[in-house]
Amino acid sequence: MRRSLQFTGLFVLTAALAACGSSNSGGNDNTTVDLNTAELTVSVHKSPFSISVADSRGDLLAEAPGAEQGSLTYWRNGVEQHVVRAIGKQRRNGSRVSFDVATSEGPGADAQVTIDLREPGAFSVELAPSNPETVTEAGDTFVAPEGERYYGLTERIISDGRNGLASEVSPKEVGSLDRRGEIVAISVAPTIAIYTPFVHSSHGYGLFVDGPMEGQFDLASTDADRLALRFNFEPSAGIFRYHVFHGPSHAAILDHYTALTGRPWLPPRWVYQHMRWRDEHASGPTAMLDGVEMNAALVEDVTMYETLGFPSPGWYTFDRPWSDGPVGACPAPGFTRFEFDPVRFPNAAAMIASLAARGTHSLVWGSPWACGDPNDPRDNAYDAVHNGYLAPNEPDHIDFTNPAATAWWQGKIGNFVSAMDIAGFKLDRGDETVPSMPTDIYFDGRNGLELHNDYPRLYVKAYTDVLQTVRPDDWVTVTRPGYAGSQAHGIYWGGDVTGADAFGAGAGTDKGLRSALISLQRMAFMGFPNWGTDTGGYYQFKQRDVFARWLEFSALCPVMEIGGGLRVGDAVDGPHAPWDMPTDPQYDDEMIAIYRYYTWLHHELVPYSYSEGVRANLTGHPIATPLVFDYPDDAAVGDLWDEYLYGPWLLVAPIWRNGDRARSVYLPADGWTDYWDDSQVFTGPLTLPADVPLDRLALYVRLGAIIPLEVVNGVTGFGSEVSAGRLTVALYPHHASRYELWEEGAIAPLSITSQKQGAYDAEAPIRVTTSEATKDYLLRVAASFTPASVTLNGTALTPCADQAAFDDPSGTCAWFSDPQHHVLVKYSTAGTGATVDLTP
């Protein structure tokens, strides 16, 4: 079962906890209590009260400023109070150490501070004021040394507040990975709507503010040498808590963070194929497919895909409006009942079956709304209104803190999914008009301030829990809003990133693609590895280049979804399709070829992408990775936002600017080769110019690469029809390397290793070892020589005279070296592992 790969929970503290460095640890004088694990020393300075953190080498990671007033702060009845000193004796309970503390408002104990070293590389700080009902905010401050960088926090590339849409209505050429100098609001805002109160520091730590309350991170903006965090106080919890995670890398910090908040969900393998969708399937004339009358737009997509030789989408989404019934109180139609509109989608069951026959799974649009006529029992609004299932003071949103409301909604979802063979939902909204005031009291007693950021998590969890029940491990939710912990409940897309300004009514823009490129890498720091964006932008693109470049970028994203457009009156603004372009020519042969190449490339990468998805599920490691993850000591990549690694082996350097046909590419300290021409080897660090015509993506392969592929034809050049049914492995042997390949449903990975015997010697023999797989292997080795012999487990294989002989399924030869020295080797594992030797 794939689900067995996902786990959450806390590690057991195995390191010793000790208090030292204090001759009078229970006194009120200036003493320090050191709390030690194998990885960290947390020093609590008792007066003035502050905390500093050092790693096992003694290098300082983070420290609160040593001001007389103290840095840990809360606001009671509007009055700012600083924790100034510890009084009395500290108390221990296992890994937890507590201090009574005095504040600037009086000499006696007014709060308690607890430090919990719950594992060797992570601890929490918890502030519990007395009389918490009078406390409104809390926060802390840390020293921000010059040059320290800060990463993560929001998918949106700038912070423009809960109601600020400027960054997507008309995106600007601003924003990067490093957020130093910003004040970042942590309040879920539409529509680029994923937020986490979790920041990475380049000094080797991550900081996570626990709980759903809104707040902000001041990242050396107000004060150039201070990082300050200030959050609303959570009345139902009565505490303010933050966690500090240490690790030798950003990946290690993510491992700590996702162990606490939830491991990223692992989708089924078909999700790593591309998704096709339209903003609206217009109601009107129908067309025939498989002898059945169906929606004409759906039929157009299917038939054009087949005519033009595109891969069948792994999944297809029917956006709103798709269901029957009136809109009622909801702000938009098309989600009233869990039934397809029979006029817009005649023969819906046959339509879903036709897609399934082509290997395509069907999704529909979903929301947290109960829409329709509250007086019509057929409509979702009827039960919601009559049973009190709605959120407070608002007519649409379901109160997912109410178990009865959640169970009712899940019953409707489960019945519909089972009856119609629906594989999941595109979950929109939940980030706009959710009741979020202190006077909005939900079923569980929390108010709107406490629910605003947590509502997206509750909303998606309601869907995913029932989908897992009715379609175990064969479903997906792709969701717009999210918060800390949401990564455990599905995959995500980047909201209404635009290809044209002013909600699509203005001029075309390439800044939306720039924004998406940064958002992808922000999501890596935030613990959301499975992410994609509307290819071409949600609103209809108006620049031909933008669609081509976005296709290239999306192909090297974990989620590749193509579609968009916007309903304007009675017109549907564009299908985002190369056969029906808004630019000249409308039927665009060059764009068709680009669309074909990159959708096939994305599909061929599925074994690689899925394996990286398993790694993300087990450790939190991103799939698309900013270069600073792998090269943290390279100053050149500290804020390099327009390049990233896809998995461990592929360096992606997209073009985003309209009209560009060249760019410079930075290659870090490793060996590299050009994806399009692997005859050259580059040794980093270096910057090189790259010619990038419209149909090319600047793409480089890290030497040593072992890339598993699923090839069925010759579109990308990685194989031919003979590759179908085999596991193709592209190898770039340069030194000893290993890759773990996960097959769906496996409880352990396959192992593939590659070794050049005599590293860096172009003429050295090559050995490849593979473990047993469910398919036969086809190796494609960039060998730099034509072998004199190729052996399998010590037995010589018969060479093929040419490519045609190698491709002949009835032939007996087993290997062939093409003019570019790509050695192709096909063999069966025959129930065991294998060793293949290529000898010059």
Q: Can you describe this structure?
A:
- The chain has 840 residues and is of the alpha+beta class.
- It folds into three domains: 19-261, glycosyl hydrolase (family 31) (Immunoglobulin-like, Sandwich), CATH 2.60.40; 262-293 and 313-493, TIM Barrel (Alpha-Beta Barrel), CATH 3.20.20.80; 706-839, Golgi alpha-mannosidase II (Immunoglobulin-like), CATH 2.60.40.
- 18% of the residues lie in helices and 30% in strands.
- It contains 14 helices and 50 strands.
- 54% of the residues are buried.
Distinctive features:
alpha+beta; Immunoglobulin-like; globular; 9-stranded parallel beta sheet; 840 residues; 13-stranded antiparallel beta sheet; disordered N terminus
Give a concise summary.
It is built from 14 helices and 50 strands. Mean pLDDT is 91; it is low at 1-29.
CATH architecture term of the largest domain: Sandwich
CATH superfamily of the largest domain: glycosyl hydrolase (family 31)
Structural class of the helix and strand makeup? alpha+beta
Supply the number of structural domains.
3
Oligomeric description of these chains = single chain
Number of strands: 50
Distance between the termini: 44 Å
> What is the CATH class designation of the largest domain?
Mainly Beta
What is the global morphology? Answer: globular
